[in-house]
Amino acid sequence: MKNDETIKVMVKEKYGAIANQSKAQNQSSCCGGTCGSSNVEFSIMSEDYSQVPGYVPEADLALGCGIPTEFACIKPGDSVVDLGSGAGNDCFVARSITGEKGRVIGIDMTEPMIEKARENARKLEFTNVEFLLGEIEALPLPDSVADVVVSNCVLNLVPNKPKAFAEMHRILKPGGHFSVSDIVLRGELPEGLRDDAVMYAGCISGAQQKDDYLGNIVRAGFANVVVQKERRIDLPREILERHLTAEQQDAFSRETVGVFSLTVYADKP
Hints:
This protein is an alpha/beta fold and 269 residues long. The chain contains ten helices and eight strands.
């Protein structure tokens, strides 16, 4: 069993390396993690941002598992915080909605990602988008600063998820809300997948059961919890064969057991 600090170091090192990879390299791997073959040429998790207003290709490292801004009800002038902002992809999409009168803050615990995002913002000459180094379990922000919080396939990597949701609740203004895309499980994930460090940094082995994940949101004090979108993640057989028996692979193919991408909305009363 890995402790929280070990997990944080592992994820930080992994995503620090990913910051210097291209989108094409990341699309040929498990959410940025090497899948054991250079011939895997598809993205398991990510969705297509190319038609989304505000999309900046240089900021898209293909590390997400949804498009949370699509469901986040962001309005012009809003203050938006993106947790695990990476190279800035969702921040720049959010900025296209908030406009010049809004404010967008990206938080990431990986210095190379922060540097990459800040460089992208400088090139775009955005003065109302900033990126701060920090951890989601201890956000470097004051209380009640955000109208909207978004996050894309990051909270599953956070060891202490109840604390992460509590921090989200703290930084949201009363009446504010979040929309988060993330990875959850239905049924028990086989041990081989859960314990594989590369798969952990690839957004799978750190995921919770769906009911536990949604329960954390309620226990943090949020209301009106709604699953806005849900889709099954079809893992390549090459990956499954590394960890699962033929019988386990068959179980994984059933609708009741597997890995799912959720986009979840909730209000702060």
